[in-house]
Amino acid sequence: xxxxxxxxxxSPLVWLALAAGVALLAWAFWSRGRRTYKAxxxxxxxxxxxxxxxxxxxxxxxxxxxxxxxxxxxxMDWLRAFHSGFLGDYVTWMVxxxxxxxxxxxxx
Length: 108
Description:
With 108 residues, the protein is mainly α. The chain folds into two domains: 1-32; 65-108, no CATH class. The protein contains five helices and four strands, in the order E-E-H-E-E-H-H-H-H. The strands form two sheets. It has a two-stranded antiparallel ribbon. It has a two-stranded antiparallel sheet with strand order 3-4. A hairpin with a 2-residue loop joins strand 1 (3-5) and strand 2 (8-10).
């Protein structure tokens, strides 16, 4: 069974074989894993940077992604210049970007 399109062909049997291959590879990686995990023991306890987390501690996303935020600080500062909080500005940007995307699609 083969579906021929203007851009090539689509064979469900090929995709099925690829999916089976990926599943087999994932199973092979999983089966090589460690079997030492025991539920309900100290292994279930959360930790932060190798230290036991204090009882009731909450670690928010700003703390977890601090490195990304610092690395992208110039980009974020540049984007904040466009942030006005006014919904009409965002709708205008969306319409402009949609128009540009449509022009690219139509002209190519």
